[in-house]
Structures are given as structure tokens and as C-alpha cells.
Amino acid sequence: MFRNREDAARQLAARLVGRDLKNPLVLAIPRGGVAVGAVLARALGAELDVVLARKLRAPFQPELALGAIGEDGEMYLTDFYQQVQGATDAHLAVEREHQLAEIAQRARLFRAVRPQAEVAGRSVIVTDDGIATGATMVAALHVIRARAPHELIVAVPVAPPETLDMLARHCDRVECLLAPAYLGGISAFYDDFTQVEDAEALRLLRECQAPPQPPSSDR
User: Fold this and answer.
1) Does CATH number 3.40.50.2020 belong to domain 5-207?
2) What does the alpha-carbon distance between residue 176 and residue 167 come to, in Å, rounded to a whole number?
3) Under a CB-based contact definition with an 8 Å cutoff, are residues 143 and 70 in contact?
């Protein structure tokens, strides 16, 4: 159990501090991930930014993810999506356009505070406050991988073992504190899982300014 997102992030940071990271960048999935990412960025002396990906909702079960879509428009679909009632090509096309519009809206909000960080050649740590199916995280990883990072690390407080195994195929390393066989809801692992509002996420992004970079000859 974690007291709150900050507590979880401090424990997670202990797994990463001292690692040989190249010009580290923490990319958080808004909004809860930004609270975790801010703590990681401070502990690692890293830059903080967001990566935007959205869940593709199942018809009649909006909490169930059929997959996810990233900023680049690429969709990731779960292995079981075709078994979900109503998950037709027409539904996916409508849901894709809806979530792309949501991503565009959120991009306007966050990019007004922080222009998109450079990824190429850097150690990139992607985080959230917890992962269930992993669909949104995989979509985010595909977006980031296309931008040629030096290495791609997933760091999260809690996720089920099968999701962690799946994520390991899409990144270079996975760090996770808790891997319960039965996840239920992510909130069950936090004493305080108060929703992170946009204003708080934006404040954290403003506070975590890019650290001074060493001369290029030393990189």
C-alpha cells in the first residue's frame, strides 16, 4: 500500500537513483502520472514532460479498454477486443476520432506550459500512477520509440504480472513496486487517491523546469 502518489513515487525513485541514465527525461501520462513523474524528475535531476495517449473505450462498458491511441494516431488494440460485444470497425473508427480530438485538446493545454521535450538519444522513463491492461502505456511507448530514445524505461508503482510481461516486450526495462495477481482497481493500493486536476498537473510541469545540460562533448 502507498500513502499517496508522492509516497509511491519516492519508493519508485529509489529503484532508479544511481542508475547510469543518459540525459534523463521523465514522461508522465496525465493526469495522475504527472504527480508521480514530478517526484521522479526531481530525484533523478531529470526533465519532466507529458506523453499523451488515450484509452479506446468499449461500447456499453466505457471503463473497459479495447486498446489505446497515441499522439501520432497509431492505435494499439488488445488481444481480446474482437470478443467484446459491439466492438466493430465502425465503433473503433468513431472512438478513434473522439480520442484524437481529446488528445489535441489536451496537447493545447499542456504544450502551452511546456513545449514537447526532445527525446532522441535520451534515457526516457515513462510513468503513471498504476497500470491495469497496459493499453494506454503501450500506445505511449510506440509514440516515444518512434522518436529514437537511447533507452525506454517503464516505471510504475503497481501493475499485474501479465501486464508487466507484456510491457517488457515494448520497452528496454520495467520497474514496478507491486505486482498483485489480482489488481482490481489501482485506487485500492493507495490510502489517498484523490484525482489530480489539470491545474495541479500544469503547476507541476511549470515547477519541473529542464535542468542545465552538460556540454555536448561530455555526453
Assistant:
1) yes
2) 11
3) yes
